[in-house]
Design goal:
It is a single chain. The strands form 7 sheets. A 5-stranded mixed sheet has the order 11-16-15-13-14, with no helix packed on it. The chain contains 1 helix and 22 strands. Strand 13 and strand 14 form a beta hairpin. Helices cover about 0% and strands about 40% of the residues. It has about 300 residues and is an all-beta fold.
Length: about 300
């Protein structure tokens, strides 16, 4: 079932200390565009993944197809490469009013194997995000818009019905899916809201983030923390680097020259201490036997570490 959940962004102010956004963007030729590339790294210890005891949530057998082998589902919201490169950080240039065309289409988020994919999405200002359920279980989609000044606001809470293309009792079911009609119309963010957070109300380990952009000069870092933005018009802009779990991010002024190449190496601070009440602990009171019936949690799709 296809669910249109977000059309963003109706804002006049921007996130944190970012510069004011422009309302329009013009497409022009950029014959001598510059290039910005580099890496984003995580500074400090990589936080432990959040742990969710599967017997405290619905569908423990199906969602446990991905788990740690002891009945825990892990949310790896920090993916860090061998050289501390941070995946899924967004790098963007603010203040570009004209340049290359947008290449992004309406982003598609899949609920598959009880996780939202991708974890981080970029959406064009005024466009929508769509969510499709690829699972034979129901999910409850809770959407929040966020800003550092006003915090989070609930946008909606609506069910995402199970995919009827599956055999409900077959954990090995193949993901056949025929998208259906959208369930909910577009929902707009308030002034000053720039990021969107989505979580499943039934399965708290399912979450996804989206950020709205006003120009196509952005990139998401890969598994090694690398990014590249090309065809940039010459000028001075504000470079913004942000990851949803590292706080307000980093901003700095950069100047791009015609046919120039600019390299930036930026680090984001790792959070310290316990980030959440969700932790993997050994507690016999929260084992499968406490359900009062037999349930087998077999991580045959992925054994998480």
């Amino acid at each position: 079932m296809r669910l249109s959940i977000l059309a963003v962004l109706l804002v006049g102010l921007c996130h944190g200390s970012w510069v004011n956004l422009v309302w329009s963007y013009d497409v022009i030729d950029v014959p001598a565009g510059g290039r910005l590339e580099g890496t984003v790294s995580l500074e400090g210890m990589v936080p432990e993944p959040k742990g969710f005891n599967l017997i405290t949530f619905p569908d423990p057998a199906y969602c446990g197809r991905i788990s740690n082998g002891q009945g825990w589902r892990l949310l790896h919201d920090f993916v860090v490469g061998p050289q501390a490169g941070l995946k899924d950080a967004i790098v963007l240039l603010e203040g570009v009013e004209a340049g290359k065309p947008f290449e992004v289409s309406v982003p598609l988020i899949e609920a598959r194997d009880c996780m939202f994919q991708p974890f981080m999405t970029v959406v064009r200002n005024g466009h929508a995000v769509e969510v499709i359920n690829m699972d034979p279980v129901m999910h409850d989609i809770q959407g929040y818009e966020t800003s550092p000044e006003a915090g989070a606001r609930v946008l909606f809470n609506t069910p995402l019905v199970m995919n009827q293309q599956h055999n409900r009792g077959d954990l090995h079911a193949i993901h056949n899916h025929a998208p259906g009609k959208s369930l909910v119309g577009p929902i707009y963010l308030n002034k000053g809201r720039r990021t969107f957070y989505m979580q499943c109300g039934f399965h708290a380990y399912m979450e996804s983030w989206a950020m709205a952009v006003n120009n196509p000069y952005y990139a998401l870092t890969d598994g090694n923390g690398h990014f590249m933005i090309d065809r940039i018009p010459a000028g001075t802009y504000q470079l913004v680097v942000w990851h949803p779990q590292t706080g307000p991010g980093v901003t700095k002024i950069v100047t791009v020259k015609d046919n120039g190449k600019l390299t930036e190496r930026i680090s984001l601070p790792a959070p310290k201490g316990h980030r959440s009440a969700y932790r993997v602990v050994e507690n016999p009171r929260f084992g499968p036997d406490t359900l009062g019936y037999s349930v087998e949690i077999d991580p045959f799709v992925e054994r998480q570490r």
